[in-house]
Amino acid sequence: MKTLQVGLVGAGFMAKAHSIAFTAMPMFFWPAPAKVNKKTIVDINEEIAKDAKDRFSFDNYSTDWNDIINDPSIDIVDICTPNNSHAEIAIAAAKAGKHIICEKPLSLTVEEARAMKQACDENGTITMVAFNYRNTPAVQLAKKYIEEGAIGKILDFHSTYLQDWSADDSSPLSWRFQKEVCGTGALGDIGTHVVDMMRFLVGEFASVNARMATYIPERPVQTSLVDSLGNSRMNEDTPKGKVDVDDYCCFMVNCENGAFGSIEATRNAWGRNNFITFEIHGTKGSISFNYERRDELKVCFADDKADRRGFRTVYTGPNHPYGSGLWPIPGLGIGYTETKVIEIYDFISSIMKGENADPNFSDGLQIELIADAVVKSADTNEWVAVEKADE
């Protein structure tokens, strides 16, 4: 069995999730498409990099990501850094003949995303963008029902991603609130996840009509290198810096297939933790999902007898997508980590087959184009057509 060598850039929260997934993938999916060795982890802070080497079980550490680009033994570059460094690292990795998995959103701008995709296309790079929530078995089951025609033609949908970690104005000014580092706020950070999910389930977006808002214009400046995701609080004397991205966005969507829907995303919704939801209505039924109850998919089929028609709950397990590799009892429970394990399994499988993964950098570029249209719509208060990545 072939062993692929991984170099991972960034040693924060996402590095933890990816490291667990690389290690656990063969335990869940055996025989594995390939073995994976975690060779080198990189962080600009040497103390953090050295600690991450031991904590996440890498062979080596470095403070310069060029070290993994220049290492001919490394097959995969895993990018878990803030958004403003994705393009430079990915383009260099593609030119060096590495395969790439990159955390979302793909880039800061559409122009960067195009350059990343072009470099990968020119060098035969297998790519994946880490929209892992679509790998939740219940979401994959929804896709199966839709493709089978179980709910008929899709009419409309509503989807949300609501969190509350930035609702407190004393939480610090992390990079996620700075446009030059993140690009957009709630839209890019969490909204793109549901954009990916709705593209996957419903179809391509044709046009959008959006509203965006910044509720907290200033936040205490964060001095730590570690992104606290709102879990730390500053005092009144801490200097404040400007927030120049959105705290909230919502937009209506016209899809190319005629379906109509809406998406809402905010990190300022008190009481909401990781509230990713969708409800999709079709001519023959409806599907409803809530990530905080991720083992469940609620379905209603129009051909049910009238005296028992209504939403029923399907608990995902061995008979459903990816079920044979996960846990043997329906409803036993999967977590965030398992969605990352599935992600890595799909990525490694694609490398071994020599075909692009799903979602890949083409999807990442299309989602950047959608986000760009959302921002333009919010600025103009008008419907904006979504440009197509392949045009």
Strand order of the largest sheet: 16-15-14-13-7-12-11-8-17
Q: Structural class, please?
A: alpha/beta
Element string (H = helix, E = strand): EHEHEHEHEHEHEHHEEEEEEEEEHHE
Global mean pLDDT: 95
Helix count equals 10
What fraction, in percent, of the residue positions are helical?
A: 25-40%
Notes on the structure:
Helix content is 31%, strand content 24%. Helix 1 packs across helix 9 (336-353) and helix 4 (86-95) runs parallel beside helix 5. Strands 16-15-14-13-7-12-11-8-17 form a nine-stranded mixed sheet. A six-stranded parallel sheet has the order 3-2-1-4-5-6, sandwiched between helices. The chain is globular and about 65 Å long. The protein has 391 residues and is α/β, with parallel strands linked by helices. The protein folds into two domains: 3-131, Rossmann fold; 133-334 and 367-380, Dihydrodipicolinate Reductase, domain 2 (2-Layer Sandwich), CATH 3.30.360. It has ten helices and 17 strands. The longest helix is centred in the C-terminal third of the chain and has 20 residues, at 361-380. It has helices at 13-28, 46-55, 66-69, 86-95, 110-122, 137-148, 179-182, 186-201, 336-353, 361-380, and strands at residues 3-9, 35-42, 60-62, 76-79, 99-102, 127-129, 154-162, 205-213, 218-220, 240-242, 248-255, 260-266, 275-282, 285-290, 296-301, 312-315, 384-385. The model has no long low-confidence stretch (mean pLDDT 95).
